[in-house]
Amino acid sequence: MLSHTLKRILLSLPLLIGITFISFVVIHLAPGEPMSLQTDLNPRVTAASKDQLRHLYGLDEPLPVQYLKWVWRSARLDFGRSFAPDGRKVTEKIAERIPITLLLSALEMLVIILIALPIGILSATRQYSLFDKATTVFVFIGFAIPTFWLALLCMNFFGVHLGWLPISGLKSMNYHQLTPWGQLMDRLGHLILPVLVGAFGGLAGFSRYMRSNMLEVIRQDYIRTARAKGLSERSVIYKHALRNALLPVVTILGLSVPSLIGGGVIFETIFAIPGMGQLFYGSVMSRDYPVIMGILVIGAALTLLGNLLADISYALVDPRIRLGRER
Amino acid sequence: MSTERDRLLRGWHLWACPLLLGFLLLSCASRESSSGSAIDYRQGGPSAYGDTIILGSIGDASSMIPNITGDSASHEIGSFIYNGLVKYDKDYNIVGDLAKSWEISPDELSITFHLRKGVRWHDGKEFTAEDALFTYRFMIDPKTPTPYAGDFLLVKSAEAPDRYTFRVHYSRSFAPALISWGMWVLPKHLLEGKDVRQSPLNHYPVGTGPYLFRQWKTGEKIELEANPNYFEGRPNIQRILYRIIPDSATLFLELKAGGVDWSGLSPLQYRRQTDDLNFDRNFRKYRYLANAYTYLGFNLKDPRFSDRRVRQALAYAIDREEIIRVVLLGLGVGATGPYKPDTWVYNPRVKRYPYDPEKAKALLAEAGWKDGDKDGILEKDGQPFRFAILTNQGNEERKMTAEIIQRRLAKVGIGVEIRIAEWASFINYFIKNRRFQSVLLGWTTGQDPDLYDIWHSSKTLPDEFNFICYKNSEVDRLIEEGRHTFDKMRRRACYDRIQEILAEDCPYVFLYVPYSLPVIHARFKGIQEAPAGISYNFIKWYVPKEQQRYTR
Question: Who's near B48: CB < 8 A, 6+ residues apart?
Fold first, then answer.
């Protein structure tokens, strides 16, 4: 199993390089340049100063040279400085954004699991019951509703109309005046809407997946055997069926790892959360190549890692795979 | 089995309830923090120091050294922290800022600035002519990533003869030069000899302006505090909080909920969504003409549009009033030329094009366009009159304007197709390569009245701004005359004539000048609209003591 893991890690290296190459080419092929968004059609900006900026950023070199230089620097884990005028290190910019996005996505994922798995299990064990139908409608409403619209409705209702919850951002403007307890509540209050609205959309996928896995497992012979042995329904469902039905869900969880740090652009924009989604969107719009490449590399590395983790945990959860490989 | 199900269901309730309860509790806890009070903010009161103004902005700043940025957020923040040598007053007259006064030499080739004495940088060091000289060298340094070097490259030499005198020499008299010294002056003692891209001043600026920098949380907020030693006196409002809220709908909700004090409104919000009691009680809306106009420009290389009669016909066929009524909900005025109506350079006595489809048809017929086959579209030499209006994506107002124009032109027998392109390809594919027949776009105005970059016939290279390829030797001569003299009367004569020619020639159909529609919480007093907007006297704004909301 160890050698299998090692092999997979080594194989993912060329994959990573391939990903960076394609990304590099694609973003440089997109029309526009780092300085163009602000300086296009601004009569105060002369053509000569544009050329000078191009030279300062090294954009006047041929593309292959630029790529090789980038690879050479990145190999030493130096992702360079942002093209934005503040010229900050890419790693610094990303490190500043990741915790917020990570916290939000982790909470969101937790809420999804806490709600979706029970819904999935219950609607499988009570297939075609009123509960099953009602939750199906509920989760599909969540799936179908555009998040930004729901977010705006909730903000208007809970934030403006009732005045219960803060609308956007991470902290209130009077945060520094609050007691420590008030500060904690303030922070949590700001998380409620983004986490719940975000989770609502994700319920359908997980709960339906859980339900269909569960249904499949319940029909298996060994479940019938367990029932025939006279085990209680509870232990049949939770001990025997659930563990097997959870297996594919683990795979999906592994694949969701990259999305944990990706963050949603629209979502973060609506809630004014300075996370990774906004950083990425902003850098794409301003053609901030070093930042775009930095985020893409991290995203690609995490996707590969997630795959790897899913693979390994699959083996851990499923004895058939584990034993089969060791044999 | 049903009992088992019930137990499962009960289990679900058991853990779901605390979760819901928790959320409810949290909601209540956070409610306490938002204060609801019965203060009547519409009442006036004596001027007082204190309180915080919260600005809502769609975009974050990109650096705290505004001289190297191109975005409006950086410029807005920069103007609170830094000063230039000169600035505009509320009527767009140039007045002193860090310079107390200035002299222009009789040959108009040198400007001597007499600087204020005793102005201190936020770190306590005195501001001197060396800083002004350094800023000039900084702007022309090829290693400085600034888009605004152009104005300063025209300077032949600059010198600081003593601590409080700064002099610049030009090789040719150049009128826009004076306001170019409104560029923010940077501290020499912190920046000289350092790589600006790695300077800590990008994040912790030190200026001379009315506000001191406190903190910047990227993507979240920027905090400034009143400078007690500001040379024009301490500003009344103690703190500025610049909140970054990228979505305009969220920004508007935050405004309604009291999380933002100052933001801009769209015409729709101004007219239809802010007329309730709550808004009346808590906010005051302002309006002044924006420094911008929207136009329909013709590609004059297109043989159809090189005929002036055709361009004039189109101007008659478009109903400006209708566009302003529908697109701006009446919140704009018709444009007659490249200047907005409340500036000294504006000339109202130019040819106007009121909506007149009959006159349009007559002019088109005169130019040879007739509907021979009665299909509703005019033809000339067998070619039907169809063309495309190009505009950029993401601007709803321009899209609606294009649609209205399309309908109006159809009535005089011209088929219009609307083409909308994403900004980068709009510029790089269509505009630079002149791949357009007509373009619906806007210009920002309000700096010096100089029109060289947009209207001079030499400015037609791919990267330049006379992309409609307008050539008129008289306009060229007048533009040059106007920019190479400091005599305001002579300049006005030039620009008056240019406006007449442009109106007659009609290379653009000048459409409208929109209003800027800021809304500010009613507790802020002392705000007055002027041609230059409202923020020119920001340091004089105040909140009466009993209406102050944020104290600490």
Answer: B236, B542, B543, B544, B545, B548
